[in-house]
Structures are given as structure tokens and as C-alpha cells.
């Protein structure tokens, strides 16, 4: 039985990320892709059919792929590296993602809504598109980007704080990925389904304790997580996300390098839900070890979260 708070939070996530989460990819003008394949036969699969993917302990560099199960494998590697449960997939969710990727590419548009009457229309919102594939009443969100391959698109989305929020969420249970290219327009779309009754760790940190991550991030995301006029590039975004949708408030944040020197950071505004805190170092991180200490209130109770991670050399 879902409580009202998780429902409200995921509804905000679905509306917020689905409507505002389209990101400009670094490759070219818009956000990721490869040559439009015809809509896969997965769209006509039995509604009961699902596929599982096992997480790996850490993300691996593999040649780019547009296969939906390979995209899910990369997604689950990224989740596994931070201790988030592995996602299963469902051919109906894959179909919803693939159809929307094709819609965006064919119509040379971005975003998460479709317009009835346009080529490839399958539903106005992600919820409508899931229902059209026989997956109704889902709490869902969507992410989209544009890269040379689908798997590169998944990796690129993971770095972005507002997009990573859904991708790493401990109560995400199903994901489907689609990829399309039409007339040079490349699109990668991920659809996530949430279940707040699912088993989940109490919290998920990214980077995880002891994890090695890139030291630098371009700082480009829509909506913008950085203050107006902030210099870019910046450091790798740091997040902690709690299960069961508690209200989380930041009391103080402190980040230090291996010598104990303070690292200045920006606080990411909570604009989609209240169960997380994210900070972004104001400059790229030099290679080495870093410590993060967050003083929080979680469901009105004081919590101190303290861990270390490493920026890649």
C-alpha cells in the first residue's frame, strides 16, 4: 500500500523530470543517437513478458550500443556501483521509450510531451504512452538525451544531478530504454517506473563510499543546478537519496580534500522532491581522496552522513 507522501513525491518527479529533464548533449546541437531502426517487435510482446538484467560491481567501458538490454545493463552497472537495487525491464516500457525516441527524432523536437497529429504520436505524456503499450496506472518518469550511442547516452545522463535522481532512485523497479536517429537527429530515451512498496536500502550515495569518479563535470543540465553566473566546469556532483520519501533538509555541508583543505561547493536546489540532498564542487576536483560530511534532518530527526570517495587520476 503506497502512502500519500511517496505518491506526491513521485508524481512531482514524473511531472518535473518528464517535463523539464531534457538535456543538451555535448556531442552536437541537441541531446543523443544512431540510424532509425524500425520500431522493434518488442512493442507487440505479451504484457506479462519481462526481462531481468544483473548489475555489475562497477561501470565498465564498452563499445557504444543501441540495444535496449545493453542500455539497461549499463544503467544497472551504474546503480550497482552505488548500492541501488537492480532494475528489471518490461517490453511494454521499452516500447514506450522507443516510440518516444522515434517521435522526437522524426519531428526534430525535444522534450517529454507529444502533440496529437504529429508523426509517431503515441500519447501526450509518459503515462499516456505507457498506457498505450498496456502498462497503465504507473508512477513513472522519463529522461532523454542525445549522443552517438544509446549506452553513451545512459552514462551521460547519470552524471547530471536532476537526471541521476530518478536513475539511481532506490524505489525505481523497472526501466526501459529506446534509441533512434532520423535525418541526423539522435535521441535516447529512458522510462522509469517506481514502486514505494519495493525493498530498498535506507539510502543511496553517489559517489558511493570508496568509489572512483571523474573529477570534472561540464555543469550543463536543464534545469540548471548551478547559480546564475557560476563558472564552469565544476566538480563531480555528490548526492544522497533516502528511501521511503522522507523530508530531508540540509543543516550544513562540508567537503575536504586529502590534506583537510575545504572544498567549496554549491547546494543543488530541491525542485522535484524532498528526499535527497545534492552538492556540486565549485571547481573540478584534482585527483585524490575527498571526504563529505552532511548534517541533515531526515523526517525531522538529526542525521550525520560522512563518507569518502576518490576523484580519478
Question: Overview of this structure, please?
Answer:
The protein is α+β, with helices and mostly antiparallel strands and 313 residues long. Helices cover 23% and strands 29% of the residues. The protein contains six helices and 15 strands. The protein has helices at 4-20, 68-81, 91-107, 126-132, 150-159, 161-167, and strands at 50-52, 88-90, 139-145, 172-182, 185-194, 203-206, 212-213, 216-217, 234-235, 238-242, 248-257, 265-267, 276-281, 288-298, 301-311. The strands form five sheets. It has a four-stranded antiparallel sheet, with no helix packed on it. Strands 7-15-14-11 form a four-stranded mixed sheet, with no helix packed on it. A hairpin with a 2-residue loop joins strand 14 and strand 15. Helix 3 crosses helix 4.
Lay out the secondary structure.
Blueprint: H1 4-20, E1 50-52, H2 68-81, E2 88-90, H3 91-107, H4 126-132, E3 139-145, H5 150-159, H6 161-167, E4 172-182, E5 185-194, E6 203-206, E7 212-213, E8 216-217, E9 234-235, E10 238-242, E11 248-257, E12 265-267, E13 276-281, E14 288-298, E15 301-311
Parallel strand pairs: 7-15
Antiparallel strand pairs: 1-2, 3-5, 4-5, 6-10, 8-9, 10-13, 11-14, 12-13, 14-15
Helix pairs in contact: 2-5, 3-4
What's the overall average pLDDT, rounded? 84
**How many strands, which pairing sense, and closed or not: the largest β-sheet?**
4 strands, antiparallel
Beta-strand percent range: 25-35%
SSE succession = HEHEHHEHHEEEEEEEEEEEE
How large is the radius of gyration? Answer: 19 Å
Helix content range: 10-25%
Low-confidence stretches: 1-61
**Shape estimate:** globular
Treating each run of at least 4 consecutive H or I residues as one helix, how many helices?
Answer: 6
Arrangement of strands in the largest sheet: 6-10-13-12
Find the count of extended strands (DSSP E, 2+ residues): 15
Seen as an oligomer or otherwise, the chain set is single chain
What class do helices, strands and sheet pairing give? alpha+beta
Terminal residue distance: 46 Å
